[in-house]
Design a protein that fits this description.
Helices cover about 65% and strands about 0% of the residues. It has 10 helices and no strands.
Length: about 240
Amino acid sequence: MEHLPLYIPATFVLTTLLTIVFLYKASDYSRPLISAMILWLGIQTALSLNDFYLVKTGVPPRFALALMPPVILILIFLVTKKGRAFVGSFNAKTLTLLHIVRIPVEFTLYWLFLHQAVPEIMTFEGRNFDILCGLTAPLVYYFGYIKKVLSRGLLLAWNILCLLLLINIVATAILSAPFAFQKFGFEQPNIALFYFPYVWLPSFVVPCVLFAHVVNIRQLIGVKGTLNKSINTGNAHNHST
């Protein structure tokens, strides 16, 4: 991947750093969390720089080690008492704003397509509409949590729709990779995500976006957390005025 212009990896590295900042802030600056994030990114960096993910044989493929551990960790958070308490402590407003990172991610994927590192189907010129979530995130943040004019139902619908769009591009990316079960992108397989720093997309940025949706959906359906507190405070203020 050395042939790529510098602005492409630079943009993606800055996007990953922005994701860290948003998640760290949403956790009320949890030191264990920031340490875990840095450690995980370091592990993925070492693996990708040593061509670990370039071995595409085997079932499941090695690439599963990039995406599955964070997903399993999210599931553990949801099914354990301490995990649920940790999830409930996250700030919903900041997690909503985190989704703006999907804008530079989509531009990165488009640039990678132009340089024949991912297929067109993975971009907004193909079947990836994930950029819409990034573009609408500031509006949802402002009108949903600052002005508080969006209903809980609309916030829930936005999170569910964006979650479905995330699942769509993740599935497309996996099925476009040069594995035995490849279904898309035969003219140009998805190879960029096997390399540093783009391996951070499936191993870190995507799980963070997934986590943000899971936390907000969980709070929106009535589980105690910072969202309920903020909405109740807002409702009380509206009644008083």
